[in-house]
Design a protein that fits this description.
mainly beta, five-stranded antiparallel sheet, 39% strand
Length: 216
């Protein structure tokens, strides 16, 4: 009798494992809203199971907040493109919705890449760069990213390798915050929980297979 549940589990599709939740179903915008909480209507489209930003549509926000989690997604960027996956997103008085950002960028052609490695792909934008030996696939090819958040511990992964690890309670993070563009945002990133945000930075970006595993 105990073998039957195991057999059934083995026969189920394995694209999403037990304990994992798909944040993008490849068919519609279920689970995602605009900044004002409405369903996306322009700019973003879904093509062959892929989320694509071909024209101006504004940022996309998860309709739920997440704290401790592991998030895995696949993405590619257009030539000279810029986007990002933000997390711990909260609305700050007078500043709007802000959060930490896993940068997604064309490191070769986008001007922001020339502003230092803290602005390049897989970096914690404006805080810490990704590892110098990271493997970023060329424009038009898919990358696989992983983001781990557990309490104050954060990890950025790119194409199977950990490229950044930090603690938001550390002196190093506090020093980086004081030197960042968010230094005057009271309480920035102190919240352990927040929404996810896919950034519309004016360029083409494609995303697919976004899966989250939560611990709360």
């Amino acid at each position: 009798m105990l073998l039957r549940p195991l057999l059934i589990a083995l026969l189920l599709p394995c694209s999403v494992l037990a304990g994992e939740v798909s944040l993008f179903n490849g068919k519609d915008f279920t689970g995602w809203t605009t900044v004002d909480g409405k369903a996306p209507t322009v700019g973003w489209v879904i093509e062959d199971g892929v989320l694509h930003r071909p024209s101006k549509g504004g940022d996309l926000f998860s309709d739920k907040e997440y704290s401790d989690f592991t998030l895995i997604w696949e993405w590619k960027i257009g030539k000279a493109g810029n986007s990002g996956l933000k997390y711990r997103v909260q609305t700050y008085p007078g500043k709007g919705p802000l959060g930490l950002e896993y940068q997604m960028l064309d490191d070769v052609n986008h001007p922001d890449a020339k502003n230092g490695t803290k602005h390049q792909s897989a970096a914690l934008y404006d805080f810490f760069p990704a590892a110098a030996d990271k493997k970023l696939n060329p424009v038009g090819e898919w990358n696989t990213s992983k983001l781990v958040q557990k309490g104050t511990h954060l990890e950025h992964w790119l194409n199977g390798a950990k490229v950044l690890e930090l603690d938001t309670a550390s002196d190093a993070f506090k020093t980086a915050l004081a030197a960042s563009k968010f230094k005057n945002v009271t309480g920035f990133s102190a919240n352990p929980k927040g929404r996810l945000m896919i950034q519309d930075h004016g360029d083409e970006v494609w995303i697919r297979k976004m899966v989250i595993t939560t611990e709360d």
